[in-house]
Amino acid sequence: MRRPAENLEPAVRDPRKLRLTAFILVAVMAVSGVLILVAYNRDAARRAEDDRPAFVTRLRTDKHDFKLWRQDESEASLLDLLGDVFVIVPVVFEQPESWSTTRQVLLDLKQRYGTREDFHIVCVTLDPENESPEKLGEYASDLGAELPFWWLAGAREESVHKYFKNVLQSGFMPKEEDGTWEFDPTFMLVDRDGHLRQPTVRARKPNGRELNFRNKVPFNFEQAAEWDEQGKSEGLEKSNVETLKELLFKTAEELLATPAKQEP
Mind telling me which residue stretches traverse the membrane in this protein (predicted)? Predict the structure, then answer.
């Protein structure tokens, strides 16, 4: 049996040692804070100078396959295009005003890359119940959209809408009211490894001064055209549409020049 302690006295702490310990802790915290701040500033500077296209998400072969019918009534998989660079565009062909600026940009892409075998345009109808493969063939004739470069495609309406919202990360789910479709017209640029990519630009204050970080820019040409109509092009040498189109071409060129890192 242990005996109770006897004649114990409280420990006497040395004030000088306590102050020294406190000083050391504060110094360590201060140095750590400075090192973290330096590392953060270096990383921010590196990111600010990094103009590579930003990653949005990735199309995975094990869960993001998407079966489509095309303008020649053939079936194909979107992921058959992995290994090439391509754009995916949501459209309602019978509502041309909803993608009028986008349409011209796609024609510019055709003129620029139409002879390449490793670049493709995929326009997917959001109204497949009323835009059948036969009609897609008619639209393709009007656009000069020929396979394999330019797909006009469709699938079940529900699966199309979910794919754009959940996989391609559209701003909102397409919806139809009184015969008019509302949808996010932003289109997606996909690299050879299935990554959705967006360009980055240096952020600016309202006075035009550049900030030390970069923002991702969505390829929403209808929004850019609307801003141009409203005169919102402060700080730009060209219109919003032309500036965004230059970013599109620059990003596409970089992705085309970059080989795939993995097998399709």
Answer: 20-40
Phi, psi values for residue 235, rounded to 5°: 85, 0
Using alpha carbons, list the distances in angstroms from residue 88 to 19, 22, 65, 187, 228: 65, 60, 14, 6, 24
Question: Does residue 239 lie within any of the structural domains?
Answer: yes
**Helix/strand/coil for 176:** strand
Residue 188: count other Cβ atoms within 10 Å of its Cβ: 23
Six token digits for residue 127? 């109204």
- Pair (41, 107) in one structural domain: no
The verdict on 99 and 129 lying in the same domain is: yes
Residue 65 covered by a domain:
yes
Domain count across the chain: 2
Q: Is residue 218 part of a domain?
A: no
pTM of the model: 0.76
Per-residue DSSP letter, 118: S
**Domain containing 104: what range?**
54-198+223-256
Q: Are residues 34 and 80 in the same domain?
A: no
Average pLDDT, the chain: 83
Quickly list DSSP for 231-263: T--TT-SS-HHHHHHHHHHHHHHHHHTSPPSS-
pLDDT digits (tens, 9 = 90+) for 109-165: 999 999 999 999 999 999 999 999 999 999 999 999 999 999 999 999 999 999 999
- The verdict on 42 and 78 lying in the same domain is no
Residue 32, judged by CB atoms within 10 A of its CB (0-12, 13-18, 19+), counts as exposed
CATH number at residue 62: 3.40.30.10
With cut-offs at 50, 70 and 90, classify the pLDDT of residue 200: confident
Q: Which two tokens stand for residue 120?
A: 């493709």
Summarize the confidence of residues 60-69 as an average pLDDT: 86
**Residue at 216 is within a domain:** no
